Amino acid sequence: MARVWDSSLEPTERFVLLCLADAANDDGRCWPSAATIARKTGLSERAVRYSLKALEDAGHLTRQERPGTSTIFVVHPCTTCTPAPRAPLQEVHPTPAPRAPKPKRTINSISSKRERARRCPDDWHPAPLPADLQAEVSQAVPGWEARQLASMRDWSRNSPNGAKVDWDATWRNWLRRELNNERRLARPRVSGPRSEAGDPGELGGMAAAVVALRAQRLAGTG
After folding, report:
1. 73 in Cβ contact with 20 (< 8 Å)
2. Residue 144 pLDDT > 60, yes or no?
3. Domain segments of the chain as ranges
C-alpha cells in the first residue's frame, strides 16, 4: 500500500487503487465488484470502471476475468510509469438545503385600511341618503337630522374608535341605529290586563252619577 502512496496517479485512480490494495491478500489478489468499490470510495460506478481501465492500461493492476462470477484484480503498483489519461470528473449530487421557514403572513389589505381610517373631517358633508332611509328621517321632528350629525362628529372626535374609513356608510348606520332606538322608546308599555269597564276614573264618574240619580228620585217621592 505504501507504493500506492508513492505513485504519481490522479486522485481518483489512486483512491481506487488504495481500495484494491486494502482488500488484497498477501499475493496482491482481490475480487471486489465495481459497486463495492464505489460504495467504499464514494465514487460513481462509472468513475470506478474508468479508473480500473486506466490503472490496468498503466500497469498498476492485472485483471483476470472469471465468467459467471467476480473479476480478480492483481495489484502491483508501479512507482514510475506513464500517467494514465485523466479520469472524468465524478458526478456530484449536492444535498438539497433544508426548506426555508415560511415568511410570516401579513394582510396588506387590513393594514392599508387602518392607515386610511381617519376621524370625521370638519369639511365632510353626508352624501344623499337612500330613498327608504330618507323617508324615515323626513318623518322625524325638525332639526333631528342636524342634531344627529353633530352627535356623530362629537363621538368621532372623542371616542377611541372614532376613526373610520367610509364616513358615508358610518352616517347611514348611525341614523338607522338612532331611528331604531327611538321606535323602541316610543313603544307603549302595558303593565297588566285592562278592565273591560274602563279605567278607575271612568268608574268613579259612573258611581257619582248613580248616587245623584237616586237622590233625585227620593226627593220626588217625599
Report:
1. yes
2. yes
3. 2-75, 117-185
